[in-house]
Specification:
- Helices cover 94% and strands 0% of the residues.
- The protein has helices at residues 2-7, 10-65.
- The longest helix is centred in the middle third of the chain and has 56 residues, at 10-65.
Amino acid sequence: MAEIWKSLPSWVRNIVIPIIAVIIAFNVIGFVIGVVSSLIWFAVKALVVVGIAAAVVILVKKAARS
């Protein structure tokens, strides 16, 4: 690997490789943020559904008493 690195022209080592590394880093960070935000959004939706279901159960119990 060191031989390949040394055989590259200096402009590739100093400009092209860092740009590629930054692009890959942004893609990985974007993927991680996307996964985390979708998991959080799923949890919020699940909590809303559970809340609505609890409200329906409470209302049905109140309606059954009267």
